[in-house]
Every structure is written in structure tokens, then in C-alpha cells.
Amino acid sequence: MRLFLLTSALIIFNTFCTKIYCQQKDQIGINVQIGKTPQQIENISSGAIKTTHGNLKFGFGILYEKTFSKHSGCEIELKYRHATNDLALALLLGTNNINWVHYNISENFLSVPITYKYRSKILNVSAGPSLDYFLSWKQHKETPYNLTLPSYTSFFDKKISVGVLATISKTIPVDKKISIEPSLYCNPILSFKRTYYGVSIATKYTF
Questions:
Q1: pTM (predicted TM-score)
Q2: Residue 9 has pLDDT above 70, yes or no
Q3: How many structural domains does the chain have?
Q4: By C-alpha distance, which of 105, 163, 162, 108 is closest to 135?
């Protein structure tokens, strides 16, 4: 959280103290992400194991890019993403028999990264903190015993999580006001063990 506040303060200070070049304009846009997280097994307790799936996932969002100078600026994004987990719980059958019940759970997040961006003709590089707000969870299918998970708080209780986002991108002009920007990103979450990485394509409008 301190990293997020410090970066935000530096960006606001730079906005007031840096000369804005007349030829530089701000941008708004939309982006689409295709990413994944490494498969990870977490032993929550002696009778609960959560496995994060490593399959590809789609996300989308909106962005605003503020120009400070010819080569520097900041980018603020608001994007939706989700992660899918297999939650295995030990179910006691009788006195000695234990069977594992598997729940397919999706976690939905609203992510807000604020990054400082350095632009060049070859590549753009950006880095900064991110805040992930936990929106909701959903059980996708019933278990073999037709059981529904009543609550997810015991297995994930972080409403807000802090991370770091690093991105390498390339600006491709389409015309004077529209450009597309493919990028590679890596977003480790510091509040718990998870890393998002993948590719993103943004369409931007200059105003």
C-alpha cells in the first residue's frame, strides 16, 4: 500500500512540475488481455487444498494515459480479470473413510494499476503498483455429491491486494489520433502468492 501511495504522489508531483510539450496529447483507450498464472498448490489447512489453474484467461479494461513530456507519462487502467481454482475439501464418510470433494471456483477481480511510462520510437517501458479489488466468487459446477459451497471467506479473505506491474509495449500509429499498442506484461501480487503474465492489445485515441 505504501508503494502505491508513493508512486501516486510522485506522478501527481510530476504533473505539476514537468513542462507539457505542445505536440504531446493525452490518450484514452480500451484493452484486451490474454494471460495466465502459474499453476500453484496451496495447503490452506489439513482438510483443504486450493490449486490455481494455469490455463489461459481473458480480461478487458479501459485506460487513461497522461503525457508529461516527449518521453514520459503515466498510465492508469481499470480492468477486469479472474482466476480459476480447484478447491479440494476432505469429506468424512462414516468413521474412517475420507473422500475429497472438488469445487471449481472462479475469483473475479477489478485491478487498478498506476504506472510510470517511458516512451521511445523502439519500445515503451512502464512500471508501477497495482491494486486488486476482490469482486466476487462463483462455483461453476456441482460436486459429485451435489454439494454447494456456502462461503468462500475461509479460503480467500483479502478484499484488497497490492502488486507490481511491469510492461513492455510498442506503439503502432493507425492515423493521427488512433494507435494500437501490443504489450507483454508481468504482474506479481505481493499480498499473496500469485503472478499474472501475458499479452495485451490496447486501442488508443489521442485528444
A1: 0.82
A2: no
A3: 1
A4: 108
The percentage of the chain sitting over the pLDDT mark of 70, rounded to a whole number, equals: 86
Give a yes or no: residue 202 inside a domain: yes
What is the pLDDT averaged over residues 127-139?
97
Contact 98, 48 (CB under 8 A): no
Q: What b/e string do you get for 92-111 counting C-beta neighbours within 10 Å, with b at 16 or more?
A: eeeeeeeeeeebebebebeb
| Phi, psi torsion values for 181, nearest 5 degrees | -140, 95
SS3 of residue 10 by DSSP: helix
- Alpha helical stretches, state H, 48-153: none
Please give the single-letter amino acid code of residue 85.
N
Q: What domain range is 173 assigned to? A: 2-38+57-84+106-140+150-206
Q: What is the pLDDT of residue 146?
A: 76
Q: What is the per-residue pLDDT for 5?
A: 58
DSSP secondary structure string, 141-185?
A: S--TT-------TTT---SEEEEEEEEEE--EESSSSEEEEEEEE
Burial 14-33 (b: 16+ CB within 10 A, else e): beeeeeeeeebeebebebeb
Other residues' Cβ atoms within 10 Å of the Cβ of residue 69: 13
pLDDT digit string (tens) for 66-114? 999 999 999 999 999 999 999 999 887 766 667 888 999 999 999 999 9
- CATH number of domain containing 30: 2.40.160.20
